[in-house]
Amino acid sequence: MKSSSSEAVMPSSLSSRASASLADSSSQLAQTAHKPRRNDMAWRWLFRAGVSILVLWVLVPIALLMLNSVSTPEQITGWPKTLTPALSFETLDFFWHYQGVISALGNSLLAAVFTMVIAIVLGAPAGYALARFVFPGMNAYRMIIILSRAFPMPLLALPLAVIFIQVGIDDSILGLAMVHATLALPFAVLITSSLFMGIPVELEEAAWLMGCNRWQAFRRVVLPLAAPGITASAVFAFVISWNEVFASAILTVENRTLTAFLVQSLSESPAEIKYAGGLILVVPALLFLFAIRKYLFSMWGISNR
Amino acid sequence: MSAIQISAVSKQFGKQEILKSIDLEIRDKEFTVLLGPSGCGKSTLLRIIAGLEYESSGSIRIGEREITSLAPRDRRIAMVFQNYAVFPHMTVAENIAFGLRVRKDSEAHIQRKVKETAALMHIEDRLDHYSGQLSGGQRQRVAVARALATEPEVLLMDEPLSNLDALLRLEMRAELKTILAASDTTTIYVTHDQVEAMSLADRIAVMKGGQIEQYAPPSEIYHYPATEFVGSFIGNPPMNFIPPDARWNHPTRSEQSSQQVHKCGIRPEDFEVRFEPTENFAPVRVLVSELLGSHKQLTARFGDEMIRVNVPSDLEVGNGGDIHIRPLAEKVRFYDHSGHLMSA
Quick one: how many helices (H) and strands (E) in chain B? Predict the structure, then answer.
């Protein structure tokens, strides 16, 4: 109260600041006047604690990974830890020139791009069909798409390895991408279908009446509106392939992807090399997922659009 | 030539009959309103004309062209949707030009047409805006401009004003009326708002349960409702339907035909009122008296029926009062047992 009365006589040049702090002090007053119940406070703190634990659960390992990969080997094994490492890029540099890393990186990229293309070329039309048409067995189809994610990778990868050898696409990046696509397709279908559902069908109908056939209406009206979301689901398919390790380790021998390569060669490497490899794997996936998070939320209906 | 002829169009959805053999003839340049309660099939009929839905049977002609089997894009029809359907990724100018660009008109013609229709709809200063930057009323204007720019033979409008607030709706209604009258386009307009229908239409088709109850000019719909449904759907308050009363002694009805009369239909404003018992007048008890500005609306008990009577706003009559009423003889309509208007 004292502050507000003193500000009341301030010169006009300061009046805007004065009124701001007036509002501030009055809101403080309102807060103290309405005393929150003890119960509310307890819940609020419990909620904050829960959120903090979950966030730390994810962030601490990533932070450690980053810190350790730019530390010297002595710092990694030494104690106590420091939050300000010496910033030595020796291990990263060493890792980069490690035999086979570059070609594994290339394989990973190639597999991820193939996966992305397959997932979108097959997934987006399926998503469009689910969004725009009513057909018999629609709900069953939607359910099967979700259920296919429950299919364990080992069960899929081992028989496929046999079949791939018979067909002659064993140890090929294309074969691997097809397996990765089975993982990525359900997401591609679900994300794109919710995307197309969000575009009013009247926009297409209006285009039809103005002289477009179905494809023209799709290309001129639906596609421009859906493009950001389709890009996002493509990136997501990319990340799924990029991160996948089990099928990659089983289905490739000579043409290892980065994940398979690291699993194989890092088990006998020193700790600092493991950290460097881990960082190189995590960072692209992390950046991509961060860029498309909005669309991943919309897949589950928590859209902020 | 762009008269529309709809012959025996029906639509079933599973076992449900949405349209039962609709016949409708719309003259060239005519403004027809399809009016009815929700679920009466009016929107389905409009979408069938547009080609957005398929009829189960029947045929549609525009002028000399049979369009029943044509795709929407070949029908030379424009449509204004309830939610406007303005393309959000295009500017107003691109929206208006869309149909012209699709059919590859010359760029000079497109530019001229965009300017012209934008000026007509008073959105010429919004041409560079996106629909997200426009108000609901402006989006509505873009939708109409976009439809008119293609110079369609037929313009379809599906409840175009229902998303606007009341004042804006009134304004747009008057504007649409003048613009569409000037454009000479045959128009079919769907609404559930009887006031909109009365104000805009050359002819109204009142629909109920997948059938057309009456297709006539607004004044005929109002003064000669073809069925009891039309009489009670149009007019606020609706027409009164009461059994014939001998006291009123209608000279126009012969003894024989009045035997078949099931109900008399009388508009609330078509009653004479007396305070004293008078010959040929029937006594009624006023239950509720509401002053509505220009007139007073009485809800009264007449025998077993409730009737509504409109009287001048300065008439002194309160709740529970007794009055005597008689309908104006020439305003009484007679309905048979099936609820159809009997010819006088």
Answer: 9, 18
Using alpha carbons, select from B299, B296, B302 the residue that is nearest to residue B316.
B296
Q: What is the DSSP letter of B72?
A: G
Contacts of B85 in chain A (CB under 8 A): 200, 202-203, 205-206
Say whether B102 and A211 touch across the interface (CB within 8 A). Answer: yes
Q: Which structure tokens are listed for B117?
A: 């229709």
* Token pair in block for residue B266: 């009388």
pLDDT (tens digit per residue) in A163-188: 888 888 888 898 899 989 988 999 89
CB B170 within 8 A of CB B139: no
With CB atoms and an 8 Å threshold, state whether A212 touches B102: yes
Average pLDDT over residues B198-207: 94
CB contacts of A211 in chain B (<8 Å) are 73, 99, 102-103, 150
Does residue B28 have a pLDDT over 50? yes
Query: What's the one-letter identity of residue B100?
Result: L
| CATH code, residues A96-299 | 1.10.3720.10
Nearest CA in chain A to B77: A209
The answer to whether B142 and B92 have CB atoms below 8 angstroms apart is: yes
Residue B201 backbone phi and psi in degrees, to 5: -75, 145
What is the rounded average pLDDT of the residues B121-132?
A: 92
Q: Which residues of B touch A207 (CB under 8 A)?
A: 87, 98, 102
A202 → chain B, closest CA residue? B85
Q: What pLDDT is recorded for position B109?
A: 95
Instruction: Tell me which residue has tokens 């990525």.
Output: A184
Q: Rounded to the nearest 5 degrees, what angle is found at the Cα of B227, between the Cα atoms of B336 and B266? A: 80
With beta carbons less than 8 A apart as the criterion, state whether A91 and A98 touch.
Answer: no
Confidence of residue B128 (pLDDT cuts 50, 70, 90): very high
CA-derived radius of gyration, chain B: 24
Q: In order of start, what are the domains of chain B with their CATH numbers? A: 4-233 (3.40.50.300), 242-335 (2.40.50.140)
Contacts of A221 in chain B (CB under 8 A): 87, 89
Q: Locate the chain B residue with the closest alpha carbon to A210.
A: B99
Interface pTM (ipTM) of the complex? 0.86
Q: What is the DSSP letter of A149?
A: G
Residues of B in contact with A216 (CB under 8 A): 102
**Contact: B98, A207; criterion CB under 8 Å:** yes
Least CA distance to B103: which residue of chain A? Answer: A211
Q: Which residue has the higher pLDDT, A101 or A32?
A: A101
φ, ψ of residue B39 to 5 degrees: the values are 85, 5
Task: Compute the 3-state secondary structure of chain B and give helix, strand, coil in percent, each to the nearest 5.
Answer: 30, 35, 35
Beta strands at B16-26 and B4-13: parallel, antiparallel or unpaired: antiparallel
Q: What are the residue ranges spanned by the domains of chain A?
A: 96-299
- Is residue B109 within 8 Å of B90, Cβ to Cβ? no
